[in-house]
Amino acid sequence: MKVAVILMEGYFIEQFKKLIFLLLTENTMTLTKAELVQQVYKTHTTLSKTQATDSVEAFLRISKNALINGSDLLLSGFGKFNVKDKNSRKGRNPKTGDELILDARRVITFKPSGILRDKINN
Predict the structure, then answer these.
(1) Which domain, by its residues, includes 100?
(2) 72-98, pLDDT tens digit by residue?
(3) What pTM value is reported for the model?
(4) Are 78 and 120 in contact (CB under 8 A)?
């Protein structure tokens, strides 16, 4: 399958990062999955629209599964997604002022790479 070959070669990940950088500089407020698919389709003339969609879906599925399983996701030149465990803690309902206990949970944090940070700030 052509999608799997692109993902296995690491080529798609490099192209994905370039597309994100490009789209970040276009001053759009939100990047949608549809826009990402469109950019992959436009920049990879050998892919059909369905294959471009499958590529983006495969990348997102792999990324989500890694995070769901508690692994960190590092995209060199882009940034790192970390899964962190938060302990239960005291909280307060801002509307009523009542104290309550917030349950323990997992959160995802993102730390951009120096390259991404520089591109955003320039």
Answers:
(1) 2-121
(2) 999 888 899 999 999 999 999 999 999
(3) 0.68
(4) no
